[in-house]
Structure formats: C-alpha cells, structure tokens
Amino acid sequence: MSDISKTPSPVAPDLPCPIGSHFRRDLAVLLDMLWALLCGLIFFALCTIAQAGLATVHGSDVPWKRIALLGLAVGVATMIAGSFINQVLLTVWTRASLGKHAASLRVVRVDTVTRPRFPQAVRRWLYGLGFVVIVLPFAALQLTDIGGPEGPRHDAMGLRIVRRACLKLRGQCPDCPTHHTPCRRL
C-alpha cells in the first residue's frame, strides 16, 4: 500500500458552549410562534371588519363566508410575513429573533462565530417552518421521535443557538462545563 498523506482539515474557532437545556430554546420558539400568530390574528380581524364595513356602506350583500375566507387568507399571509421578518431579518440584523431576545439567546454561525448571513437565515427559517408544520404534528401524535439534545434542530443550516451570557463573558460563563477558549467579540 502506498503512503497517503492527509492534509489537515481547516479548524473552526471554538464555539461558545451550547445551551444546556432546551427550555430556553423552546421558550424562544413558543414566543416566536405566538408573535406570528398574533400578527395573523390582528390582520384577520382588521381585514374582516374592513370588508364587512365596506359591504355595509356600499349596500352589497357579500356572504360572510367570502369575507371570512379573504380575511383568513390575509391573516395567514401576514402570519408568514411576520414570521419571516422576525426569524430572518431581525436575526440577521440583531443575531436574535424576538423570542430569542426574551430568552437571552443568540444565533451565531458555526464556522466563524459571527452573525448569520441572509441566505443561511432564510434556509433556517424554511427548515424551522417545515419542522413546525410537518414534524411537530406527528410528534404530538407520538408517531415520530423528534430526537434528543443532538436531534435534528442542533446546528441547523450551519447556525447554532447559544446563550448571550456565554458570548458576553467570552467563555468564562459559570454554567459551562467544557471550559472552552474565549470567543472573539461579535
């Protein structure tokens, strides 16, 4: 056999310690879902009231089913838009969505420990949307196993959710059992 020399693979910088329990992550997801739902419900109500008011003013007999269906379409579109703005645009701009800000979490890139790029954030949002729409209903019916702490949500699309304290304290957080090296300032 011939001697094959292996070239060393590039080494990624040390990542901040991952969150120990999924309580913070699940709280952030719940708050983000509530935000999107609230956006959809508000616009559903506004659209339905506006349509009913316009129908009354013009004296037309528009069936309530049509008014409710159009309001539902506007509500769902607004819910998706609100989720996109929160999960993608706000995350790229501030490294966290509203739920992650409330849970003191940040989203960083795995390779450089910096803020996520726009395409990565879009792919992660689509992944999360598919996860919530497809996997969670089956998990609620106990037809599938979501996975443990290293399950399918861990480091999705090259991004990791870390605690804000771990980034601020540069690796000197008291909850970190790994004693990782300090990360650079973001």
Can you describe this structure in just a few lines?
The chain has 186 residues and is mainly alpha-helical. It contains five helices and two strands.
Which properties best describe this structure?
186 residues; mainly alpha; two-stranded antiparallel ribbon; 5 helices
Give a written overview of the molecule:
The chain has 186 residues and is mostly helical. It contains 5 helices and 2 strands, in the order H-H-H-E-H-E-H. The chain has helices spanning 23-58, 64-94, 98-102, 118-140, 164-168; strands at residues 105-109, 159-163. The longest helix is centred in the first third of the chain and has 36 residues, at 23-58. The chain is elongated and about 65 Å long.
Any chance you could write out the topology, listing elements then pairs?
Elements: H1 23-58, H2 64-94, H3 98-102, E1 105-109, H4 118-140, E2 159-163, H5 164-168
Antiparallel strand pairs: 1-2
Helix pairs in contact: 1-2, 2-4
Task: List the quaternary state of the chains.
Answer: single chain
Count of individual beta strands: 2
Q: What are the segments in which pLDDT stays under 50 over at least 5 consecutive residues?
A: 7-12, 179-186
Query: What summary fits the major beta sheet?
Result: 2 strands, antiparallel
Q: Structural class of the helices, strands and pairings?
A: mainly alpha
Name the strands of the widest sheet in spatial order. Answer: 1-2
- Write the element-wise H/E pattern from the N-terminal end onward: HHHEHEH
The rough form would be described as elongated
pLDDT average, as an integer? 76
Q: What share of residues is helical?
A: 40-55%
Task: Quickly count the helices.
Answer: 5
Return Rg in Å: 22 Å
Portion in beta strands: 5-15%
Distance between the termini: 48 Å
